[in-house]
Write a structure and sequence with these properties.
heterodimer; A: 260 residues; alpha/beta; Rossmann fold; 2 domains; 3-stranded antiparallel beta sheet; 9 helices; B: 310 residues; MetI-like fold; 0% strand
């Protein structure tokens, strides 16, 4: 691989066979994600954005086309623990403390006790949850739980972070705060992030690249390279540049919906 | 402490109904006894009285009704009589320094408890192993689950003598083993069903997460499915231990056993000593209550330590 492309998808197809006939979750999806990119996937329900993410994670098997992660198959990437995955629900184990939740992947991957403790402390600091190590999940707010689940995905230092609507269930104010934190985290760690969202402002605020998708069949209708600087204060969302990109995203979404 | 008032209220209502029921239940026996003692009873003779309802008898012989509360062999003993008999066969035995006397309920309760615990252990083990098989193997699910359900439709009283006969055929001495098998037979089912539900409690995203870590099957079993099933397991264990006790008592009933609470119930029936039956029943209820309470305590402590207290 001479290119710096972390993820490369070429005319990817995924068809689910259901009782009501085949459902084309993905059709002819091609996309390159470069190292260090922050790519958002936005589109209405059923547009295949989550399915695409799950293909990268080897949680779904495409029925056509090719996809590589770090130049290998998604399966090899998964087995070499190349990515961390964050689900919409924090999914912390209620019987484990926050610290032990974050060390879960480390235990499974066979890190030493000392290494586990060191990494848990480091990632907790990264998501600003130091001091909560011994708390149980129910003692934390929804936003803090989601931060802990991000820490869990960061703990084993994968270069890729796949995030499936991680802030979808949180309220606007918490969401703003977490968006800001996520950008800082991305700047600090230089990870490649693929991020599925329903929110236009969230997508525009976070991303270097916005992928607009549309349903039936699930496909990419527009790819927008953001012209915003990497350093983004929250009030950048009122700048004309931001609004222009948001406008283009909205147009793309509307075009995808033209037929219904 | 707030739970005490409703519990006491319900208890008081039950005892009240019990006392009220003693009068009609015992009126015939009481009138027979009064007649033999030379009292005037309406109508005369125990055979003609069979044609008359108990309510009529109580109205016509109201002065003899209270006799029904002090009979030696009542149809329905009063709670106080049961309490006395229970004390006589437990506490008094201890006071006399013979707690393990074969005439006392402590000895028989211990015999029943032993079989119950063996049956409970065996049934729980079978239930858990079966549940793991069902959750991990579709073949096991298709083949095991229907049999588990069918097994519970067979009346245990029909099966118990067969188990006793078969186990003596294969050379098992004594009744401990067959009783434990009968007990396990009743106990495994709630554990199986609860554990299947518990092991399947983690949702897809939690299983997917472990897949992204490339976790082995054993790792996801030990770290996710097993701990997730613990609350379900305890609920099942509480049902299971009560079922195990019932199984043991049933195993003692039709089999000519001479020790155990079930044997006491049967012997009490055969010798016409209802007080013995009732105090054995009472002992079984106390035993069941104690076992379930003990499991409840273990559940609370365990879940609290796991951070899952509700």
């Amino acid at each position: 691989m001479t290119t710096q492309n972390v993820i490369q998808a070429k005319s990817l197809d995924l068809t689910f066979q259901t009782n009501d006939g085949p459902v084309h979750a993905l059709k002819g999806v091609s996309l390159d994600i470069a190292k260090g990119d922050f790519v958002s996937f936005i589109g209405p329900s059923g547009c295949g954005k989550t399915t695409f993410l799950r293909c990268m994670a080897d949680l779904e098997q495409p029925t056509g086309g090719t996809i590589t992660v770090n130049g290998t198959t998604p399966e090899e990437a998964r087995k070499s623990r190349a990515y961390g995955y964050v689900f919409q629900a924090a999914g912390l184990y209620p019987w484990r403390t926050i610290g032990r939740n974050i060390s879960l992947p480390l235990e499974i991957m066979g890190y030493s006790k000392a290494e586990q403790a060191e990494r848990v402390a480091r990632t907790l600091e990264l998501v600003e949850l130091s001091g909560f190590e011994r708390k149980f999940p129910w003692q934390l707010s929804g936003g803090m739980q989601q931060r802990a689940s991000i820490a869990r995905a960061l703990a084993f230092d994968a270069d890729i972070l796949l995030m499936d609507e991680p802030f979808g269930a949180l309220d606007e104010i918490v969401r703003d705060h977490l968006n800001e934190q996520l950008l800082q985290l991305w700047a600090q760690t230089e990870k490649t992030i693929a991020f599925v969202t329903h929110s236009i402002p969230e997508a525009v605020y976070l991303s270097t690249k916005i992928v607009v998708m549309s349903p039936r069949p699930g496909r990419i209708t527009d790819v927008i390279e953001s012209s915003l600087p990497r350093e983004r204060p929250l009030d950048i969302r009122e700048s004309p540049e931001f609004l222009e990109i948001a406008h283009r995203v909205r147009d793309g979404l509307r075009a995808g919906h033209a037929y219904d | 402490m707030r739970a005490l008032l409703p519990v006491v209220t319900v208890l008081a209502v039950i005892v009240g109904i019990w006392y009220l029921a003693v009068a009609p239940m015992n009126v015939r026996v009481a009138l027979d006894q009064a007649e033999r003692a030379g009292e005037v009873v309406l109508p005369e003779g125990s055979v003609p009285r069979r044609e008359v309802s108990v309510w009529r008898l109580m109205l016509d012989n109201s002065e003899h009704v209270r006799l029904g509360y002090t009979l030696e062999r009542p149809r329905l003993p009063t709670p106080a009589q049961v309490g006395q008999e229970f004390w006589k066969t437990t506490g008094e035995m201890v006071a006399k320094g013979r707690p393990w006397s074969k005439r006392g309920l402590i000895y028989h309760g211990w015999i029943t408890l032993q079989s119950t615990l063996w049956g409970f252990a065996l049934g729980t083990l079978l239930g858990i192993v079966g549940a793991v098989a069902i959750v991990y193997s579709r073949t096991a699910q298709l083949s095991l689950m229907p049999w588990a359900i069918i097994s519970q439709t067979i009346p245990i009283v029909a099966l118990a003598p067969m188990i006793i006969v078969l186990s003596s055929q294969v050379g098992i001495e004594g009744r401990g083993v067959p009783k434990a098998i009968i007990s396990a037979y009743l106990c495994f089912f709630p554990v199986l069903v609860g554990m299947v539900k518990g092991l399947r409690a983690p949702d897809t995203s939690q299983l997917d997460l472990l897949r992204t870590y490339n976790a082995s099957g054993m790792q996801s079993f030990l770290r996710l499915r097993l701990p997730a099933s613990v609350p379900y397991l305890f609920t099942s264990l509480k049902v299971g231990i009560a079922a195990a006790l019932v199984g043991t008592i049933v195993g003692e009933l039709p089999t000519g056993a001479i020790s155990g609470l079930g044997a006491r119930i049967l012997i009490g029936d055969q010798f016409g000593t209802p007080l013995a039956i009732w105090s054995a029943l009472f002992a079984a209820a106390v035993l069941a209550g104690a076992l379930v309470t003990l499991l409840d305590l273990i559940q609370r402590v365990t879940l609290k330590r796991m951070g899952m207290a509700t």
